[in-house]
Each structure stands twice: as structure tokens, then as C-alpha cells.
UniProtKB/TrEMBL annotation:
Lineage of the organism: Bacteria, Bacillati, Bacillota, Clostridia, Eubacteriales
Name by which UniProt lists this protein: acetate--CoA ligase
Enzyme Commission number(s) from the entry: 6.2.1.1
GO biological processes: acetyl-CoA biosynthetic process
Keywords: Acetylation, ATP-binding, Ligase, Nucleotide-binding
The organism's place on the tree of life at top rank: Bacteria
GO molecular function, one term: acetate-CoA ligase activity
Length: 570
């Protein structure tokens, strides 16, 4: 496996039923030339294998910021990631330590990401949209030893609260004279460009991806090396990668699709990826599809709805979009109207995929080789067993709504929740199932249909937002006595954040106070957490034990009957 390099897969999923009954993950390991006895390094497999084979001079990433383009070939990526691994080592970083990337999707993000993993350290991608309090929470929890960031983001890193942090590496800057930080360029200039990564076991952690749930704090989902076969197989079966593909995953790398399908799957297949680091703008997005001749496009339903709202009716002709051949989405329900629009707009249907940060890779998807049922998430990938279960973990019959569960033990499955064993075990409390927290049913053809969440997690434009994180921040504002936060269905964003607050009597409600409270949340957590609306109420619905009943708030908001409020009051 050392000298051959990896070729792009061409085998599609021609016969789903056959693959579903015969495929074993070990087959993928063999196909990829992985030796589980020796172990491997996923970054070496994704980058160096390509660089050492026929893809040496092929573009791995084409970065576009709206003005200019920067490219990195597989060979360049190999050398730069080696350098970064060497640079980290020279800075005293040891394997197993956590290195946070508090950076937009610049070339340096991708180099650092893969370099950290080559060293055997654990990468922690953090969105530059996080403000101080949100950021501090994750840097503390992960006990990150170093952060790679930009000069303009340094102010958010409150070093006094981060005893584990030893190093700041600043992209686009010289090292600071006082030694507060080191510059990315100078440390890279001193590093050698060959590096030998130590092979590691399947279960060796490579990344902590923070995500929200129904708790007060985001949790660090641990991804492990074993995910490699899953990223590879789903790249082949679901994304349908071919040698000549130009692929655009629109998700930022601080959200899991931007990693599993923004880094791993395309690299493992040796395709060229477009990375766009600018803001959303419909005309700009269409320009990217045309200019870079994108063929495979992985995005979100919200992004497509935003394009749909923008018009024109026929972007394909208007912008000369000729090369696109496959469109997929993730993160939230894909409403059939979007598929109908896409058929007119691009002459292509949209293929929904379902998965979670915790599952690491796609679990359920619509495949090009199977009939597409608009509104359905599709069918499980070969190697994945999905079912609908009741509260005791018993499998439910066809068409019954229950919790979506996956038989535990697929390659990309999380290896743990960082420093929270109990939280981790909770997902597996009904063996043999991993419990997703999603409600769904399965139809007679084996297609799954999403029905909602069992908890109060909010999905805005696919982003997963924990209501308690926002409630706690609202409670820190002097005017707020208590707060309840829900997601309100929205035709464009999927959901928007709505907050109910009880004010302290000395604070009269006013538009100014509303703006101030929203600004308070924005400046401490970040704009994605800001409630669209804040409604003042006299009291919040609580159970007799004092637990906030968000589903009552939601029913009130939607004008629905408040059913089953047993244990509640008022
Ligand atoms: C939701 C995103 C409906 C679901 C990769 C899941 C979806 C949560 C779909 C995970 C889909 C994801 N249809 N809902 N195709 N895909 N979800 O971790 O509720 O940010 O549990 O991962 O998104 O969100 P996460």
C-alpha cells in the first residue's frame, strides 16, 4: 500500500439490495489497503497516498474568497501538512493533546487540520463566529494546548481562563516580539517538509467536534481513525465521486459535514474540492458553480431555499451552469418543494442525506440508483442497520412513529463524549441500539421519514442550537428573571430562535431593551444564538418539580392545544 497511491473509485452502488446484504466494512478496509494489525494515520491515507500516486499534481483544494483563488495540489498538501506536524512538534505539542483551530476556512485551516492529525494530536475545529463565552467554554472543556487563529480573533481568547493553553499560532502574522504568540509563517518556514506519521489504532481519536443538545453545555464528540472506511464508502455510494469531479461542500469546517464530507471523503477519492470562504450571496453561489465547473454539490435545504427565494426561475440557463450532475443536502428536512424547484432550476433532483455529528458519517441517504421519494431521508447505507424503536428499545412495525435507532458499531461512530462518559453511555442505553433522538417512521419500501426531535434541540439553517445554552445566557442579563427558548418553524430557515422571558419588575419592556438583550447574547455567544423574537410573559410553564416545559411554549407559539401537560401547572 505504500508506493501505489490510491485511485478514485468508479464503482457506484449499482445494486443496492445486493450491496446491502453482502457488504462488510472489512471489505472496504481491504479495498483501501488498510492493515488493522498495523493501524494507519487517516491524514496520511487521505493526502500522502494520493500524492504518491497518480494524483500528485492534481488540485486537492481550490480556495476562493470571492476575489482570488489559491490552489493546493495533493503533493503540496502533503508537504505543508508534514511541515505543520513538524512545527507543532517543535513547539512542544505532543500526540494526544488538543489543538484548536479558531479560523475561517482558509488554506491554513486545512493544512493545520491535517497536520495536527499527522502528529497524532487531536484537532478541535471552532467557528470564528463564536464570541468569547462560547469559545472559552470549548477551549476549557477540551483543555486545548494550542490555538491556531487570526490576529483579529485573538481578543476573544481569554487566556487567563485557559490554564492548559501554552501556544497561540497566528495565521498571517509574524511572531509577537513579547512572545505572546508565534506566527504561522515563520514556524512553517523553519519546519522540514518530511514527516513520518506513526500508525495508530482504529479507536485512536482524531477530532473533537463540539455540538449542542438539551444540556447546558456543548459536548465534545470524539471522532476516531476508524471513520476512514465510512467516509470512503459514502463518498463512493452517496456522493458518487468520479475521477473528474469538482466537488463543492458548502458547509464550513466547524460543522461536521465540512469535515467528514468537506475533507475526508473528497481527499480519500482524490477529487478536487472548492472551498468558498465568503458570505452567502445567491449570485455569487451561482458564479461559483459556473466558474469552477462544479459537478457534485453538497449543501443544505436552507441554502437551496435561499437561492429559490432569490430567483431567477432558471439559473441554469441564466448563469450557464453546465457541469453540475449531483446535488445533495444534509442537516434538516428537505421539503419536496425544493426538489421540484431544483428540477426546474438545474434539471436535477436533490438527494437528501441523514446523519449526525455523533454518527460521524452518513447513515441514511437517497441513492442515485434507487427511486427517489421526495420528503424521505432515504434508506440506510450498506453496513448500517437502522430501525424505529419504542421507549423500551423494541422495534416498531412499518409506519409506526418512534425513535430512530442505529445498531451500534459502524466505523465512523463517535468514540466517546470528551470527559463525559455518562452522556456517551446514555446514547447506548438500549442495546444494541444507538439512540438518535430523532423521531421517524419507516415505510414498506424501507425508506425513512423524519418526524421531529424527541428533545428541544433547535435546527436553524441546519445548525444545531441548544436552547439551554441560550437560556443561561439570557438569565445573565440583569433585566431577565427567567427565560425559555424554543425553535419556531420557519419556511426559510427551518427554525428560528424564539425566547420567552420573565422580566424583573424594575425593567419595563421596550424595543430598546429587546435590542439590548439580543446584543448581549450576540456579543457573548455569537450571532447564531440570538433570538429572532423575544416575548415577555408573566410566568414560564414548569412541571411541579420546576422543569421548564418548552413543548408547552412551542404549542402556545403555534396556537396548538397544549396536550399532555400532566405534572405541570398553569
Ligand atoms: C437533523 C448534521 C432531517 C436531525 C450532519 C439530526 C436531519 C441532527 C437530517 C444532527 C435530514 C440531519 N433530515 N433532519 N436529512 N440530517 N438532521 O449533528 O435532527 O448538526 O439528529 O449533524 O440534524 O445535527 P448535526
Amino acid at each position: 500500500m505504500n508506493s501505489k497511491g490510491r485511485k478514485t473509485a468508479t464503482a457506484n452502488l449499482d445494486d443496492y439490495d445486493k450491496a446491502y446484504s453482502t457488504f462488510r466494512w472489512a471489505d472496504a478496509e481491504r479495498e483501501m489497503g488498510l492493515d488493522p494489525q498495523v493501524g494507519w494515520n487517516i491524514a496520511v491515507e487521505a493526502v500522502d497516498r494520493q500524492a504518491e500516486g497518480p494524483h500528485r499534481g492534481k488540485v486537492a483544494f481550490r480556495f476562493f474568497d470571492g476575489l482570488s483563488t489559491v490552489t493546493l495540489t495533493y503533493h503540496q498538501l502533503k508537504l505543508l501538512t508534514n511541515r505543520f506536524a513538524n512545527a507543532l512538534r517543535a513547539l512542544g505539542v505532543a500526540p494526544g493533546e488538543r489543538i484548536a483551530l479558531f479560523l475561517p476556512p482558509l488554506p491554513e485551516f486545512y493544512v493545520a487540520f491535517l497536520g495536527v492529525i499527522k502528529l497524532g494530536a487531536i484537532v478541535v475545529p471552532l467557528s470564528p463566529a463564536f464570541m468569547n463565552d462560547a469559545l472559552t467554554e470549548m477551549l476549557r472543556d477540551s483543555e486545548a494546548a494550542a490555538v491556531v487563529t487570526l490576529r483579529e480573533l485573538l481578543g476573544r481568547i481569554e487566556r487567563g481562563k485557559l490554564p492548559a493553553m501554552r501556544r497561540l499560532i497566528v495565521v498571517g502574522s509574524e511572531s509577537s516580539p513579547a512572545g505572546t504568540w508565534v506566527g504561522y509563517d515563520p514556524v512553517m518556514a523553519e519546519a522540514a517538509d518530511d514527516f513520518t506519521a506513526a500508525p495508530a489504532a482504529r479507536e485512536a481519536p482524531i477530532m473533537l467536534m463540539y455540538t449542542s443538545g438539551s444540556t447546558a453545555k456543548p459536548k465534545g464528540v470524539i471522532h476516531v481513525q476508524d471513520g476512514i472506511t465510512h467516509y470512503y464508502q459514502s463518498g463512493k455510494w452517496v456522493l458518487d465521486f468520479r475521477e473528474q469531479d469538482v466537488y463543492w461542500c458548502t458547509s464550513e469546517p466547524s460543522w461536521v459535514p465540512g469535515i467528514s464530507y468537506g475533507i475526508w471523503a473528497p481527499l480519500l477519492h482524490g477529487v478536487t474540492s472548492i472551498i468558498y470562504s465568503g458570505e452567502f450571496a445567491a449570485a455569487r453561489w451561482y458564479e461559483i458553480l459556473t466558474r469552477f465547473k462544479v459537478t457534485v454539490w453538497y449543501t443544505t435545504p436552507t441554502a437551496l431555499r435561499r437561492l429559490m427565494n432569490f430567483g431567477p426561475e432558471n439559473p441554469q440557463a441564466r448563469y450557464g451552469i453546465k457541469d453540475l450532475r449531483h446535488i445533495l443536502t444534509v442537516g434538516e428536512p428537505l421539503n419536496p418543494a425544493v426538489i421540484r424547484w431544483s428540477e426546474k432550476a438545474f434539471g436535477l433532483r436533490v438527494y437528501d442525506t441523514w446523519w449526525m455529528t455523533e454518527t460521524g458519517g452518513q447513515m441514511i441517504a437517497n441513492f442515485r440508483t434507487l427511486p427517489l421519494k421526495p420528503g424521505s431521508m432515504g434508506r440506510p447505507l450498506p453496513g448500517i442497520q437502522a430501525s424505529i424503536v419504542d421507549e423500551e428499545g423494541r422495534e416498531l412495525p412499518t409506519l409506526a412513529v418512534g425513535q430512530l435507532a442505529i445498531r451500534a458499531g459502524w466505523p465512523a461512530m463517535m468514540g466517546g463524549i470528551w470527559k463525559d462518559e455518562e452522556k456517551y453511555r446514555d446514547y447506548f442505553r438500549m442495546p444494541p441500539w444507538y439512540l438518535t433522538g430523532d423521531l421517524a417512521y419507516k415505510d414498506a419500501d424501507g425508506y425513512f421519514w423524519f418526524q421531529g426531535r424527541v428533545d428541544d434541540v433547535i435546527k436553524k439553517a441546519g445548525e444545531r442550537i441548544g436552547p439551554i445554552e441560550i437560556e443561561n445566557k439570557l438569565n445573565e442579563h440583569p433585566a431577565v428573571l427567567e427565560a425559555g427558548v424554543i425553535g419556531r418553524p420557519d419556511p426559510l430557515w427551518g427554525e428560528v430562535i424564539k425566547a420567552f422571558v420573565v422580566l424583573r419588575p424594575e425593567y419595563p419592556w421596550s424595543p430598546e431593551l429587546q435590542a439590548e438583550i439580543r446584543g448581549f447574547v450576540e456579543s457573548r455567544l455569537g450571532s447564531r444564538f440570538v433570538p429572532r423574537d423575544i416575548e415577555v410573559c408573566a410566568k414560564l410553564p414548569r412541571t411541579t418539580s420546576g422543569k421548564l416545559m418548552r413543548r408547552v411554549l412551542k404549542a402556545m407559539e403555534l396556537g396548538l392545544p397544549v396536550s399532555d401537560v400532566s405534572g405541570g401547572e398553569d
